[in-house]
Amino acid sequence: MIYRSKLLSLEGFLMKYNLNYFAGKSWSFALIKGGKIIFRSKADRLKPLIECIKKHKREMRGGAVYDKIVGRAAAILLAHAKVKEVWTPVLSEAGKRHLLEKKVKLDYLEEVESILNREENNICPMEKLSRKISEKEFIRRMLK
Fold this sequence. Notes:
- There is one protein chain.
- Strands 3, 4, 5, 6, 7 and 8 form a 6-stranded mixed beta sheet that branches. Strands 1-2 form a two-stranded antiparallel ribbon.
- It has a single domain, classed as Hypothetical protein TM1506 (Cytidine Deaminase, domain 2, 3-Layer(aba) Sandwich), CATH 3.40.140.
- The protein is built from 6 helices and 8 strands, in the order ββαββαββαβαβαα.
- Strand 7, helix 4 and strand 8 form a beta-alpha-beta unit.
- 38% of the residues are buried.
- It is of the alpha/beta class and 144 residues long.
């Protein structure tokens, strides 16, 4: 289910956090559960997501995640952590497809064909890797 709203419902109560709230912050990633920010980071790429899974996997289950950019690589890891909602300004087609297959609710601003590398001249290396190997192997490599 994809929806856009000013206040998102999670765990049966109204959240004060949403995509618009995080758009004005300098954070690249945040985990929200029980109406509280459990973890946040300004780091880029997959680093904050991987760190969050390693430190807060239990809290991620059923929680909401804000991530600045979500492609297939991030989507695989988010689904693995069993988050309930993902809020992102930028979502790739493959990331969207994967999260919807896993029944994760989405709130996003822009859908793009693929996530690009820093030079914006090719597909992001993690996106490429996530397409070449199985999900199980990708998760194993990212979380080792």
